[in-house]
Structures are given as structure tokens and as C-alpha cells.
């Protein structure tokens, strides 16, 4: 038995402090995320009304990810928040409704919802219907149909 095998992956999204709570609210409103755990930053400054987030684990469907405030004291976090080439893929039965809900919560749609195309996230959606979004914190999300891929005619 391999005792060194990784058993889970949880992406961690860093958000410029103090926008962590705003990000958590966005992911709940836009994608129906459920909060699993929350740990506030122990070095809260007295003038802060809302404590900074050390980590909040959110769950969408069966997948989890972590949101954290990026502070000046964070040595493990990237020095600057920028695009990392990472795209988060979500599956749903109704792509149009999911994209509309995310846009209403503050996301920006990037392009049109496409059917079976590869240009905007075909690899993520595997030939299924999909739409691309950018959340208010700069992260890119592909919203893909959970149904079978579209068959291309020859």
C-alpha cells in the first residue's frame, strides 16, 4: 500500500486583503458554495471591523477550495496577485441560468456560451456547452453542461 499517495486536492484562492469576506459571499451567491470551515487571521488589527480570513473552505458540489486574504505578512503567498493560467471548471444542468446567476452576483461573462467549441475552454468542458466568466477577484471560471458532449458532424 502506498502511504505517500495524495488523497485530495484543494485549490487555494488568494484575494487581496480585506476582500476575502466579499469573495466568500460572491462564491456563495454566484455558485451556491457552502461554507465548510472558517479560520480568521489571528493578527487582526484593532481598527479592522471585519477580521481577515486565514482560510475559508468552500464546497461546490463534491469539490472544495479555500479562500484566504492575502496580507503583507504572507510569505507563502504569491507576491502579486495575477493570472496564473488556472481555470476553475463547474458543471451544471443549465449553463445559461448558472452564467446569468454569476453575472448578477458580479462576474463578467467573457464571450458567448458556446456549444462544443474549443476556443474558450473546450478542454475544460470536453466538447459540451460552456460559458466563460471572470469573477470580481480575477479568477476565471468555465461553466459547463453536465450532459454528454455535442457530436460534431463530419
TrEMBL record:
Pfam families named among the record's database cross-references: At5g48480-like_C, At5g48480-like_N
Annotated coiled-coil segments of the chain: none
TM region(s), chain numbering: none
Domain VOC: 9-146
Name of the protein in its database record: VOC domain-containing protein
